Amino acid sequence: MRADDPRPTPPAAPEACAHGGAFFEALGEEFDDLGRRGGIVNADVLDAWFDPAPGVVAALHEHLPWLLRTSPPTRSEGLVRVIARARGVREANVLAAGGSSELIFLALPRFVARGAKALLLDPTYGEYAHLLGKVIGARVERFPLARAAGWRPDPDALAAAVRASRPELLVVVNPNSPTGVHLPRAGLEAVLAALPAGSKAWVDETYVEYAGPGASLEAFAAASDRVVVVKSMSKVYALSGVRAAYAVGPRALLDPLRAFVPPWAVGLLAQVAAVRALEDPAWYAARWAETHALRARLAGDLRALGLDVVEGCTNFLLAHLPPSGPTAAALVARCAAGGVYLRDCGDLGATMGDRTVRTAVKDAAANARIVAAIAAALRAGP
Ligand SMILES: Cc1ncc(COP(=O)(O)O)c(C=O)c1O
Question: Which mutation among 206, 209, 229, 345 tests ligand 1's pocket best, with the greatest number of atoms within 8 A of CB?
């Protein structure tokens, strides 16, 4: 930029939001030996423990070289049609993208101005406070959740906070991360009814399938004038690697975003995988049920070690470490040294403290490794 350039100097880029994924350091970030993946448990990210539906894997296997070298449908037209059919909404109310992260970064800067108010749960998925506060420069207010209440949002109190705060944007991750706690839809709809005219709500349903059938607000959002539901297909459809997601909402909110979605935003592998996945609801329902059983067993084993495991419904769980033992940072480092990657949740909200960890629910063998690693880390003392 020249010295007399009239354009304002862009703000320095804030540091990126912290995430799980440290296991790639052990695996090799240039993927030179992907076979090493068998030696690690990547429970610091919340990817599915199960494979995508057989129809997904078969389609990709059969046509892989062609899928790799072929331009996808420009605007994911077929995928959007399949999503609309599966969810009982109109195509005009669906916007597809390469992951919900892309939708979050596409929409929120256009929904919220610098200096405007945004209301978030505390704790919640870290990317929201990062993008809204540090990148956009919005005034971020937090609605504190309490350990004593099992991290459950009280819908009446949240509705009262919405009325008092009058945020330009309300973000609700439901079920919430890192807590795994679901706010039933009647409660959330009452909260959304408290939004003043002109405000918007962004409901992140990355894990909602784990709350059971009928829990999603997709159709509600499509019929609303101010609610957008964002649906990642990463975790519940086991598609994290290909990047597929969609938003459902009123045309008045989605149409202005469409112009900013580049052509071919969703790769062909992702479009094919997502369409085939949506065709096999029974296969996924069986995996989600298995996940609940695996979660119950893992929670029981961790409780037997003295951890306070939060009641929740998701493919991950939040646990508070005993006050006398190691901090979450120390425990996570000890587990990682043995190839078991967990998430220290200290940075996910002011209320988390230094003894809270989150683990993904994996298959039975990996869960046993998680339990053994935590047991050893606790035995090593503070
Ligand atoms: C609550 C929540 N929202 C959004 C995302 C982003 O998911 P993706 O970009 O893979 O769709 C994640 C990923 O962990 C998440 O936990």
Answer: 206
